[in-house]
C-alpha cells in the first residue's frame, strides 16, 4: 500500500512519526506532506529518514508535484488534522502544500482524517459543522479524537487517536 500522510501543526505531530514507523514496518510505502506549522513541531528531516522519501512542504518547489503525489497514493491520511486544515478541506481551500495535494487526491482514493485539538476547539460549532460537511461527502473517514489530558493541561476530547488505531483504519480503508 502507498500511504500519503499529511501532518499539520499541533503537539500531536510527534505521533505521526510513530504512525510512519508502524506503517513502514508493516511494509507500506509512505510519503509525507506537511504544513508550515507542522514543521514547527517535527522537522521534515525526521520523516525523510523514516520514509526514505523527500517531504513536501512547499507547493512551489515543483508546480505539478501536488498532482503526481496525489495520484501516487492508494490511501491518504491527515494525522494530526488541525482545526485550520479541517476548515480548509471543508471549504475547498488549497493554499499550502498539504491542502493542495489533498484537494487533488483522486475520487475513489480513501482519505482518513484523524483530528487533534483542544477540547473547546473540538466542540466549537464551526468545527462540528465542518466535520459534518466532510462526513456528508462520503469521501472521508474520521477517526475521532480521544478523551485524555491534553498538552495544554485540559482534560477532555481532543487527543489524537493512537497511531496503531489510525494505521488499522488506513489499512481497512485501503481494502
Secondary-structure arrangement, i.e. CATH architecture: 3-Layer(aba) Sandwich
What is the number of strand segments? 7
Strand order in the sheet with the most strands: 2-1-3-4-5
Structural class: alpha/beta
Strand content: 15-25%
CATH class: Alpha Beta
Domain module count: 1
Biggest pleated sheet: 5 strands, parallel
| Tally of DSSP helical segments | 9
Ranges with pLDDT <50 over ≥5 residues? Answer: none
Radius of gyration: 15 Å
State the end-to-end distance.
Answer: 10 Å
> Which sequence of SSEs, written as H and E, runs from N to C?
EHEHHHEHHEHHEEEH
User: CATH-wise, what's the superfamily?
Assistant: Flavin prenyltransferase-like
Q: Using the alpha-carbon principal axes, give the shape.
A: globular
Helix content: 40-55%
The average pLDDT value, as a whole number, equals 94
What is the multimeric organization of the chains shown?
Answer: single chain
What is the CATH fold-level name? Rossmann fold
Question: Could you characterize the architecture of this molecule?
Answer:
- The chain has 175 residues and is of the alpha/beta class.
- 45% of the residues lie in helices and 21% in strands.
- It is built from nine helices and seven strands, in the order E-H-E-H-H-H-E-H-H-E-H-H-E-E-E-H.
- The protein has helices at residues 13-25, 36-39, 44-51, 65-72, 83-91, 97-103, 119-122, 125-137, 163-174, and strands at 2-7, 29-34, 75-81, 111-115, 140-142, 146-149, 155-159.
- The chain has a five-stranded parallel beta sheet, sandwiched between helices. Strands 6-7 form a two-stranded antiparallel ribbon.
- Helix 1 packs across helix 9 and helix 5 packs across helix 8.
Amino acid at each position: 500500500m502507498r500511504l500519503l500522510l499529511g501532518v499539520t501543526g499541533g503537539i500531536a505531530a510527534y505521533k505521526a512519526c510513530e504512525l510512519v514507523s508502524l506503517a513502514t514496518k508493516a511494509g507500506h510505502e509512505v510519503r509525507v506532506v506537511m504544513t508550515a506549522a507542522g514543521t514547527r513541531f517535527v522537522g521534515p528531516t525526521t520523516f525523510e529518514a523514516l520514509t526514505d522519501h523527500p517531504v513536501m512542504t512547499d507547493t512551489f518547489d515543483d508546480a505539478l508535484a501536488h498532482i503526481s503525489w496525489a495520484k501516487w497514493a492508494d490511501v491518504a491520511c491527515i494525522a494530526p488534522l488541525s482545526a485550520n486544515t479541517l476548515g480548509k478541506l471543508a471549504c475547498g481551500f488549497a493554499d499550502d502544500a498539504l491542502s493542495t495535494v489533498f484537494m487533488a487526491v483522486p475520487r475513489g482514493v480513501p482519505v482518513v482524517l484523524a483530528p487533534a485539538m483542544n477540547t473547546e476547539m473540538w466542540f466549537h460549532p464551526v468545527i462540528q459543522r465542518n466535520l459534518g460537511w466532510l462526513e456528508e461527502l462520503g469521501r472521508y473517514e474520521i477517526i475521532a479524537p480521544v478523551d485524555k489530558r491534553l498538552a495544554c493541561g485540559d482534560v477532555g476530547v481532543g487527543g489524537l487517536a493512537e497511531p496503531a488505531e489510525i494505521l488499522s483504519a488506513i489499512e481497512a480503508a485501503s481494502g
